[in-house]
Request: fold
Amino acid sequence: MTPATACNRKSSKQVNTLHTRGIAAPAIKPPAVKPTAVNPPAISALAKFANITNFAGIAMMSVASLVFLANGAATAADKMTANPPPSALLDYRIRADVMGLVLEGSSQISWAHEANRYALQLETRTALTGVLLTDKSEGGFDSYGIAPDSYSMRRFRKEPAVATFDRKAGQINFAGNGTPYKLQGGEQDRASVLWQLLSTARARPALVPGNTWTYYVAGHRGGEPWTFLLKDKQKVQTGLGEVEAWHFAHVPADKKTTTQVDIWLAPSQEWFPVKIRFSEPNGDYIEQSLNKITRK
Reply:
């Protein structure tokens, strides 16, 4: 997604979003060259791919408070019960069309949930770069659902950037000189926000198209509100066969400059995301399809 300048903007409504940043980037079909001999167009496409899948790029993220808006009625103080999925390793196939180049590859999401702790890691590899993207989130659970303690992101040829959820001090500390954000309850990071969304759906499976979820989502430098709209239920082709999935969409306010994210969550597969699509205003896209689930 095209990165937007992060900000520490407060909102009366706090937002729900997904990283899936969360979620990962594509592997390119390997050419007969060494990684150091990558041609400029491929490097540019990879860089753009990394930006698009930098889910907080749209804002991707840390959540300040969860709000469930049923027919538009809710308050920022509302709390919701979340039901996290069981531990699993998810393998995805990725196809992308970025800057005229067709990219194909794979990614993994590792979700570990035990007692009152969780660990989440998102990783994408390409033939040219090895590991291209890595996002990690660790923490526990509270009355709002997932409660991150730390979030780190690493992009190709860059040092890791970290955001820390200091719950004793009641604030999120960002990398660099970012102004700390005052915790209000329900905060997520770029990796955990999608898991918060699906954990909420698992807790309230009687979904109604038109409902929205809003979170305040923080990345390593800041954050902003995100709203997800429940559109409809669709049949989706995956490596597991055809499955029924609920289609959620983050539709940006400015469709001409900002990436749109669509997510499909399948009740028959523990509500794991079976498909994720990042769509750019210029027609570029990255689509991620679930290929395999390995229970832990």
Observations:
- The chain has one domain: 35-295.
- Helices lie at 40-52, 192-203.
- Confidence is low (pLDDT under 50) at residues 1-38, 54-78.
- The first strand starts at residue 67 and ends at 69.
